[in-house]
Amino acid sequence: MASTEAQDDSDDGMDAFMDKFKSQRYKNALSENNWEEEFNKIPMFMKTAPEEIDPKKYPELACLQSIIHDEDRTPEEQAKSLKDEGNSYFKEKKYKHAVVAYTAALKKKCGDQEFNAVLLTNRAASHFHLGNMRSALNDAAAAKKLKPDHLKALIRGAQCCLELRNFPDAIQWCDEGLKSHPTDNKLRELRATADKQKRAAERDARKAKAKEKKLTGEKEALLSAIKDRGIKLYQPMSSAPEGSGSEGEDESPSAGIAQLSLDSLSSLEVTGAQVSLDEQGSLHWPVLFLYPEHQQSDFISAFCENNSFRDHLSVMFGEELPPWDTDKKYHPQNLQLYFEDEEKETLYQVDPDSSLLNILQHKRFFVKAGTPSFMVLVKGSSFWKQFLSGKKIRGL
């Protein structure tokens, strides 16, 4: 009878528990909405390790990490755990974390030199994938010092030298490695690549040197040709060397041909053209024609010094006149040319049949910014009279 009553009480208790379970949720269960996220917090089932381990958010993982870094264990055991941690980060491509783990393992200073060589090589690999080639090379060199025949260290050192374009050192790394591992295909492949790129770099260096030598020779010949002709390049007073000019009426202290340099011929960036010397020894200048009446201009990129102004005017104002010449008066026979001496506030009239060289050699002509410039006016026009009024005019 007592047994039957006890059984009844037990059944009533189970019934009450089941009724309560149906009406109230189990507090420690995974939530229905976030069960995958919570499941991933369990160390055994984690797909990836978190960036930072918060003990409140990851208590189990924090506990495991404290075991890994237990200071009561030997330095070798701690370093081994840190190495494994670094390897895990490396597999997940978290190279910065891997570097930290391998560095912490090295700081344990365990006496196993071969193990330390592995740590250094692994850290070199992490640095390599981060693009820190110098650090990777330093670690590979340190690993090789501890273990001269360490294959991975030798390969990594050669790879770093290749990335740094230090081809002779890359070849040396490979040669050292092939002494211990003569059949290793990776070392052979790296050596062949380093040798090929070394030859290409040497060839490019020779070409660059030859090109630089040629350009230097061309520049010297160009400046010599200008100087030999007595052509004067305008130099601002602030940059003119002392004693570069005299105080005579026909020479300007602010311009001269002393210390000629291509800086005085700086027309290339502005106009896209620059004075050049052809194979026959003739200079070709970029020349600017200004039309003050219409605020227009023409540009000739290569005006041969031996050509006359009329040669170009007959082309520029030949069968078709420019659209801005609405009065159709810019015919070659109507035009007058001038160059301006700003310092003397004087205009010099240019004979259209003169060669460019003849004008450039005039004692009061100074080439500014590497581009000789001339003004073009229509003789007898109202603007011509007004423009020249009150100005000092000289013939050549």
Write up this protein.
α7 (133-146) packs antiparallel against α8 (151-163) and α9 (167-180) runs antiparallel to α10 (185-228). Among the domains are: 69-200, Tetratricopeptide repeat domain (Serine Threonine Protein Phosphatase 5, Tetratricopeptide repeat, Alpha Horseshoe); 255-394, Phosphatidylinositol 3-kinase Catalytic Subunit, Chain A, domain 1 (Ubiquitin-like (UB roll), Roll). The relative contact order is 0.05. Residues 238-259 have low confidence and may be disordered. It has 396 residues and is α/β, with parallel strands linked by helices. It contains 14 helices and ten strands. The strands form two sheets. Strands 3, 4, 5, 6, 7, 9 and 10 form a seven-stranded mixed beta sheet that branches. It has a three-stranded mixed beta sheet with strand order 2-1-8, with no helix packed on it. Keywords: Repeat, TPR repeat.
CATH superfamily of the domain at 255-394: Phosphatidylinositol 3-kinase Catalytic Subunit, Chain A, domain 1
Low-confidence spans: 238-259
CATH topology of the domain at 255-394: Ubiquitin-like (UB roll)
- The number of strands is 10
Determine and state the CATH class of the domain at 255-394.
Alpha Beta
Strand share of the residues?
5-15%
Radius of gyration: 43 Å
| Helical stretch tally | 14
